[in-house]
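Inputs:
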Amino acid sequence: MNGIIGFLEYFKMLMPQVMDGLLVTLQIFGLTLILSIPLGVIIALGRLSKLKVLNVITGAYILIMRGTPLLLQIVFIFFGLPLIGVTLDRLPAALFAFTLNYGAYFAEIFRAGIRSIDIGQYEGAGVLGLSPRDTFFRIIFPQALKRVLPPVGNEVVTLIKDTALVYILGLDELLKIGKIATNRDATLLPLVIIAIVYLALTYVLSEIMTRFEKKYDYYK
Amino acid sequence: MKTLIKKALTLALASLLALGLTACGGQDTSSKSTLDKDTWIVGLDDSFAPMGFKDENGEIVGFDVDLAKALGEKLEKEITFQPINWDMKESELKSGNIDFIWNGYTITDERKEQVSFSKPYLNNKQVIVTLADSAIKTKADLKGKKVGAQSESSAVSAMEKETDLYQSFDGGKAITFEDNNQALMDLEAGRLDAVVADEILLRYYITLKGAEKYAVLDENFGDEEYGVGMRKDDQKMVDAFNKAYDEMKADGTLKEISEKWFNEDITN
Amino acid sequence: MLRIQGLKKSFGNVEVLKGVDLELQKGEILVIVGPSGGGKTTLLRSINYLEKCDAGTIAIDGKYLIRDGVYASKGELKEIRRTIGMVFQGFNLFPHMSVIDNIIEAPIRVFGKNRDEALVEAREILRFLGLTDKENSYPFELSGGQKQRVAIGRALALEPKLMCFDEPTSALDPALTDEVAKVIKSLSVKGMSMLIITHDMEFAKKVADRIVSIDKGVIIDEHMYESGTGE
């Protein structure tokens, strides 16, 4: 009994710091999503473009972003860019790296989603006289969106856990808060608490994604 | 992993420069002295109790933190604390993100090539700790045993200097952990036979975890000193620092801070 | 109405259309039959600018889609394509849109009609096709015959002068072919020209004003065809 009360008291004591860490984690998570999804769409269009130049550029971009560790990209952007005169603060640097990285992953998901739409849909839109722009945004993209929701959901859950990588810039996000408390109080309890918070976050995100998928269930 | 990141970073930066992207617009930190700035940014790993860490209220506290605050007051500078990752400390200093590395920073020859150190302000030892009932009583007993330490710490460097002994450990080297707390937990779990770590840190942890559980050996892996890291060749800053430090020693400020954290004056 | 002269098209080394000549009058229902690989699908797709031809002429209602191997400008192509309706073999309905949205998409986006106006006209079309109660259904909820009628309705919303059908009976229950034939005939009465490709001779005879056959990339005389397949 004493143990449970002790745990609850510790939990209560740690809560304000956990909220601080959660704020950093959610900031990076939310802003990365908002920025990287549109970026992903643009990169995907570049990949699918008939212009060879765009193909090569976006292809190289995706290769670099997916082919090197995100941790390295963060370090690079924060410590490396100042050498060529671009100095970013910690949070913007982290956001920049996350957006570039996740943009590449989203691009590949969107590319696959767009490619999976039957050629007949393009032809159907074509004979109706729809412009390429309308064809994409009215016909192709909405259908691709439904198909990419499951893999996007996967990335979203990965992202919430990847945010922990900003520890390398000294940012005190959720996991770092747990580690600080663990080192200070010489106990694993904070990590248990942090694990519960991550689990709760992931649960909420999964629920939201399921809602989205249900929303698109109106057609097959 | 950490070494890998460092190596990759160095390589990447080198290639950036080689590409002809000249370092023009970046902060020019070499010619200006930190002493001329009004605000000083102290870089620290905020999970590094008791030197600098976040307390229950989320405030950055610790022995080094109090020391830095006292120095700021004395020299009329505003002090801010910037949490950094310990692996990146020298990069942070060089790029001007921080002005001091001040967080139980052991003075070593390798580090002297990258930063300028203040005069040593704290003596430290790399001590060997075992569980209270362990049969290990001397350094020689470590032969064939599993020995743990914090990764990239001066404990590892100290052990490596005693090559024969180091190579006789189980596995031919020390088992390294992200922090000392993890190493001590492993010791407690019985998977390690001994942990080598900073005496100052160990005291803190042993007190927290229960001193009766552990035994600290008489022999150790040598003495070392903590210093404050400042930008290389900023001699003006180093001189001002050392002068202020001596004055704080004389007027009892240091004694007061030391007693607050360690119950005795252990400063130089 | 539709005039095709010396139309040629190759896929790589294979010449699929070897100089096709064809004419279609206003309000006429022309059925093209022929074996698979004979070139009839390619011909239909070429008229709809879904394939680009190498040589020849296609004129629709006096406007040249391609003249002696030279295609019209982008703007002209757009104009010409608006006068042609196409009902695909697989219908190519937009699965994420309801029946009525499938039909009003082009009038709104292409003709710039406002939604209310487009809805009134679309409901008129649905009534004509007997689909009034399916207005808010989605394509996956419809039978093959209903989907086809939606596809016809979608094409009709552009008020085309020429309607093309690619294998209209292939996805249908044999009992339903009469109904399609009826719809097609009632449209031609309104003055619309019909171009249908099929391999279903029964259906062709039922619906056609004229039947021609295409094989090995050229049009074969209709009498020859009928004597070859007469039972």
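The mean pLDDT of chain A is 92. Flag for discussion at group meeting.
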